[in-house]
C-alpha cells in the first residue's frame, strides 16, 4: 500500500495535560489549543487544585490566557475546551466529590501518591485515608485518574509502576469494583497486560515519549534531561508493549500527552525536574509512532475517539489535517519570560499539522 500524504483526524483530545499557571499560561495554552479540542488539565499546581471553586477559578484563568495568547493560534483557540481534574488528598471530603460530580467541567480526581512526582507533596499518604472520597466517587461515577507508582525508596525506580499495580491498584479495585479508573501514562508491559485483562471500568493513557523512546534515550551521549519524565522511560520491550496496546484498537487505550513543561533552567541543572514538553508536536509525535507500527488508520480512534467515549462525551465533529511534510522540532519554546525545550528538539518529524502553529511564536 502506498504511503498516505495526508491524514485527517477528528480534532484530538488530550486527556492528561499540564498547563501550569501564571505568566506561562498563555504560552502553554496556545501550544495545545492549536491542535487539541478537549483537555483534562492536571491539578498539581502550588497550592494544588483541591476544590471545585479552585478548579473553576483555574479554568477561568486558562480561558483568559487563551483569549490573550498569540494571534497565530487564534483560529483554533475557540475550539479548545479545558476540563478539570481535582487533586485527591488525605482530606478530600464526600461533599467535595459530590460537588465535583455536579460540575460539568470537572471530570475526575487525580491520585498522586505523596512524593511520587512533581508537586505531589500534598498527595495521598495512604489510600486507606480516602475511603469516604472513593466511596462517593464510585457512587457518582466520578473518574479517578491514577499516577501509578509506589514511592517506597526500597523499590527500584524502574519497578515502581509494576509494584503499584500489585500493592495498591489490585486491592483498591477489590474494595471499589465500580470505581471508574484511568491509569495514567503507562510505561510497562505489566501495566498494559493489567489494563487489557482487568474487569470493570478501567482505561489508560499513553504518552508520545513512552511510545517513541526507551530508557537508552536518557543516556545517549550524556545525560538527557529533556527526555526525563515520571514514570521514567523503560526498556525497549516495554516500549514495544505500549506501541502494541496503543495501535491495537482496544478502546481502553487513548491519548494523554502528559506534556509537562519546566523551564530550561529547571531541567538543565543538578536535580532537574521531571516532565517532557510535547504539546506543540503531540499529534505529529503520535503519528510517527503509529506510522512506524503501520497503524496510521488507528490514530483517529486513539487520539480522538476512545478517550471521549470513556469520559462519556461526544466525539469531536471538528477535524485537523496532517501533511507528510518534514518539520524541525524547535530548540526552544517561549515559557513566560523564560523558555522550555521540547522533547526531541532539533530533530525532524515527518508529519506536520496543516494550518496550526508548528513554529514557536516569537517571544
Ligand atoms: C509531571 C509534572 O511535571 O507536573 N511530570 C512528569 O514527569 N510527568 C507530573 C506527573 O504527571 O507525574
Ligand atoms: Zn502528568
Give structural attributes.
alpha/beta; 32% helix; binds N-carbamoyl-L-aspartate; eight-stranded parallel sheet; 13 strands; TIM Barrel; 363 residues; 13 helices; binds zinc ion; three-stranded antiparallel sheet; 17% strand
Shape: globular
| Series of secondary-structure elements, N-terminal to C-terminal | EEHEHHEHEHEHEHEHHEHHHHEEEE
Total beta-strand segments: 13
Give the names of the bound compounds: N-carbamoyl-L-aspartate, zinc ion
CATH architecture: Alpha-Beta Barrel
Can you describe what's shown?
The model has no long low-confidence stretch (mean pLDDT 95). Helix content is 32%, strand content 17%. It has a single domain, classed as TIM Barrel (Alpha-Beta Barrel). The protein has helices spanning 25-33, 52-68, 74-77, 94-102, 131-140, 160-175, 189-197, 208-212, 236-246, 264-267, 282-292, 299-304, 306-310; strands at residues 6-10, 14-17, 38-41, 81-87, 106-111, 143-146, 181-183, 202-206, 253-255, 319-328, 333-335, 338-340, 348-353. The structure holds N-carbamoyl-L-aspartate and zinc ion. The site of zinc ion has 5 residues, from loops.
Describe the SSE topology.
Layout: E1 6-10, E2 14-17, H1 25-33, E3 38-41, H2 52-68, H3 74-77, E4 81-87, H4 94-102, E5 106-111, H5 131-140, E6 143-146, H6 160-175, E7 181-183, H7 189-197, E8 202-206, H8 208-212, H9 236-246, E9 253-255, H10 264-267, H11 282-292, H12 299-304, H13 306-310, E10 319-328, E11 333-335, E12 338-340, E13 348-353
Parallel strand pairs: 2-3, 3-4, 4-5, 5-6, 6-7, 7-8, 8-9
Antiparallel strand pairs: 1-10, 10-13, 11-12
The structure holds N-carbamoyl-L-aspartate and zinc ion.
Amino acid at each position: 500500500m502506498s504511503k498516505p500524504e495526508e491524514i485527517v483526524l477528528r480534532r484530538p483530545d488530550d486527556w492528561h495535560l499540564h498547563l501550569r499557571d501564571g505568566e506561562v499560561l498563555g504560552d502553554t495554552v496556545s501550544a495545545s489549543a492549536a491542535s487539541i479540542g478537549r483537555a483534562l488539565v492536571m491539578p498539581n499546581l502550588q497550592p494544588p487544585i483541591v476544590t471545585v471553586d479552585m478548579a473553576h477559578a483555574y479554568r477561568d484563568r486558562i480561558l483568559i490566557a487563551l483569549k490573550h495568547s498569540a494571534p497565530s493560534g487564534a483560529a483554533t483557540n475557540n475550539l479548545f475546551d479545558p476540563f478539570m481534574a481535582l487533586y485527591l488528598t488525605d482530606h478530600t471530603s464526600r461533599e467535595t466529590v459530590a460537588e465535583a460530580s455536579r460540575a460539568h467541567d470537572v471530570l475526575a480526581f487525580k491520585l498522586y501518591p505523596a512524593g511520587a512526582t512533581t508537586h505531589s507533596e500534598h498527595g495521598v499518604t495512604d489510600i486507606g485515608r480516602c475511603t469516604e472520597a472513593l466511596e462517593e466517587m464510585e457512587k457518582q461515577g466520578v473518574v479517578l485518574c491514577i499516577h501509578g507508582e509506589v514511592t517506597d525508596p526500597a523499590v527500584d525506580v524502574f519497578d515502581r509502576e509494576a509494584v503499584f499495580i500489585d500493592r495498591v491498584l489490585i486491592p483498591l479495585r477489590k474494595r471499589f469494583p465500580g470505581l471508574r479508573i484511568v491509569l495514567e501514562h503507562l510505561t510497562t508491559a505489566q501495566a498494559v497486560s493489567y489494563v487489557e485483562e482487568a474487569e470493570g471500568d478501567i482505561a489508560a493513557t499513553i504518552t508520545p515519549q513512552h511510545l517513541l523512546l526507551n530508557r537508552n534515550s536518557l543516556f545517549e551521549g550524556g545525560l538527557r534531561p529533556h527526555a526525563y519524565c515520571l514514570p521514567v522511560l523503560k526498556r525497549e520491550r516495554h516500549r514495544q508493549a505500549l506501541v502494541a496496546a496503543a495501535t491495537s484498537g482496544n478502546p481502553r487505550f487513548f491519548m494523554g500527552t502528559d506534556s509537562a513543561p519546566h523551564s530550561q533552567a529547571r531541567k538543565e541543572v543538578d536535580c532537574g525536574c521531571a516532565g517532557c514538553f510535547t504539546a506543540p508536536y503531540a499529534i505529529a509525535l503520535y503519528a510517527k509512532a503509529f506510522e512506524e507500527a503501520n497503524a496510521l488508520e488507528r490514530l483517529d480512534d486513539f487520539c480522538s475517539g476512545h478517550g471521549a467515549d470513556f469520559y462519556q462525551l461526544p466525539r469531536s465533529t471538528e477535524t485537523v489535517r496532517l501533511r507528510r511534510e518534514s518539520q524541525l522540532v524547535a530548540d526552544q519554546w517561549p515559557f513566560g519570560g523564560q523558555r522550555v525545550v521540547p522533547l526531541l528538539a532539533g530533530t525532524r518529524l515527518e508529519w506536520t499539522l496543516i494550518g496550526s502553529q508548528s513554529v514557536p511564536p516569537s517571544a
